[in-house]
Amino acid sequence: MNDRAAPLIPEIVPIGLGDRSYDIHIGAGLLDAPGSFDGLPNSSSALVVTNTTVGPWYAERLVACLQKRHKVVHLLALPDGEEHKNWETLQTIFDALLAYACDRKTVLYALGGGVVGDMTGFAAASYMRGVPFVQVPTTLLAQVDSSVGGKTGINHPAGKNMIGAFYQPQRVLCDLDTLNTLPPRELSAGLAEVIKYGPIADMAFFDWIEANIDALVARAPTAMAHAVRRSCEIKAWVVGQDERESGLRAILNFGHTFGHAIEAGMGYGAWLHGEAVGCGMVMAARLSERLGLVDAAFVARLKALVERAGLPTVAPVLDAEDNAGRYLALMRVDKKAEAGAIKFVVIEGPGHAGTRSAPDAVVAEVIAESTVPR
Ligand code: NAD
Ligand code: GLY
């Protein structure tokens, strides 16, 4: 850390969704800062859901702070890992809620990365047909993406995030200090989602990331604060226009169609979600180039930035016999697929994205260009 401290007074990014509107608070030490939870429901009971890695770092502080608001604060630590983002783990949240006789007013707090956030949000959406929840994201990826916008859910062995609900939190609290304990590989995974916002929405932000990537990798507080704030602003802008992904919101999935195929094909947890997205963005940019939408220089620039963020840019061969066929089959399970036709998020020009289908043969060329045997 060679930078001055991140903002102590939180910066607030509003997300406008009518009666489901809420604020994203971004700053240092927010986890147990007085005022972090002002204005939120203060029912008699609360359940903090975390995991076995994040809990020992941060749960005690959060629980102590929440005990000033709720009579009883229960704590549940899920097993850590994408491979646990499933029905079995979700059921343990319902088991705890019922064992503690939690009612319709019980507030759920998701303390952790995207896995904890997605599962806690889904539990909140469905327990007694919906209870309030608050996101307290502790990974960069969760702060810039997964905690914002109300997508919740779990994986199915056949496809990523296939079971879930749109359900908005009451608030998102991004405590930048929590990022200091993130392993470097997880930090890089989060940077993939930060980088994503440039090509799809804001090339000035892309320029800024290029100029500041070393500071971001070194976790310089002011750089991190700016990256989280600008990412949240862009995500809030997109989600505010298209909460349920009937169109525009799909651009947030730039790199995800290829990325989800890598994650599912390798087995969840082998590649981090952000790593798969980083590599997937390079593949999606190559597809955009083959469709005549961007030039080779744009692809090279994106690839170089993804590499500097510490992310892979070469994907694994998933099937030695029919690699393209395996990728295509996995990508057909994507939620954007319509009647079996894969919809790719492509860059239509620097700073602008859209969705398109592409001939299998062209996609196969991208896969051949982008994969090597494991
Ligand atoms: P994650 O939740 O698995 O967290 C990554 C790792 O970091 C875990 O081992 C976790 O225990 C650990 N960790 C978390 N915070 C820590 C901290 N402060 N210090 C030390 N270790 C910490 O992964 P993720 O990258 O946060 O999220 C990925 C998940 O998010 C995927 O399941 C993906 O599908 C989902 N996602 C959802 C959305 C959405 O809109 N809902 C968007 C993007 C991604
Ligand atoms: N991460 C994609 C979305 O929120 O839509």
Walkthrough of the structure:
The protein has 374 residues and is an alpha/beta fold. The chain has 2 domains: 11-181, Rossmann fold; 184-370, Dehydroquinate synthase-like - alpha domain (Dehydroquinate synthase-like, alpha domain, Up-down Bundle), CATH 1.20.1090.10. 43% of the residues lie in helices and 19% in strands. It contains 12 helices and 13 strands. The strands form 5 sheets. The protein has a 4-stranded parallel sheet with strand order 4-3-5-6, sandwiched between helices. Helix 3 (114-126) links the parallel strand 5 (107-112) and strand 6. The structure holds nicotinamide-adenine-dinucleotide and glycine. The site of glycine (GLY) has 6 residues, from loops.
CATH class of the largest domain: Mainly Alpha
Bound small molecules, deduplicated:
nicotinamide-adenine-dinucleotide, glycine
- Spatial gap, N to C terminus: 36 Å
CATH architectural label of the largest domain:
Up-down Bundle
CATH superfamily of the largest domain: Dehydroquinate synthase-like - alpha domain
Task: Please outline the helices and strands.
Elements: E1 11-15, E2 22-27, E3 45-51, H1 54-66, E4 72-78, H2 87-99, E5 107-112, H3 114-126, E6 133-137, H4 140-146, E7 151-156, E8 159-166, E9 171-175, H5 184-201, H6 203-217, H7 221-241, H8 256-266, H9 273-290, H10 296-308, E10 315-316, H11 323-331, E11 344-349, E12 352-356, H12 360-370, E13 371-372
Parallel strand pairs: 2-9, 3-4, 3-5, 5-6, 10-13
Antiparallel strand pairs: 1-2, 7-8, 11-12
The chain binds nicotinamide-adenine-dinucleotide and glycine (GLY).
Nicotinamide-adenine-dinucleotide is lined by residues 51, 53-54, 57, 80, 82, 85, 112-116, 118, 138-139, 141-142, 145-146, 149, 151, 161, 178, 181-182, 186, 189, 273-274.
